[in-house]
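Readers outside the structure-tokenisation community will struggle with the description of the input data as it stands. I therefore recommend that a typical entry be quoted early in the introduction. An entry of this sort, consisting of the sequence and the corresponding backbone structure tokens, reads as follows:
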Amino acid sequence: PPDFAPPPSFNVAADAPAPVNAITTTQVKPAEPAPVAKAPPTPAKQPKKGLSLPSYPSESKKLGEEGSVGLAMYLNADGKVQEARVETSSGFPRLDEAVVKHVTRSWKFEPCTEDGKPVACWHKMKVKMQLKDA
């Protein structure tokens, strides 16, 4: 029979200290008051002298193209159109492009105001392109 070998001995050590029942305190920050909601800026207004119409593209005249272009315009604090985007197309890219180019070059509004001071804002409107105005 084989010789008897005693099993090896192991020392088991705890990895973490045993949990201790202790009371701890933490400081809670007082809740900050809710911010007061600001009133939205007052909308921009058309200038008293009105806004000029874009020049009608000659190709659109020949083809009898008409339609309304829905615009979203970003106005700076002076009321000048900084950016214009077509939100609803007239159905004719030539007309849409003519309107966007014209409003960014030529239009200026009475600016939006917040607390009585002029501020930049988005303004939406439609521009009708009709052959009778060409």
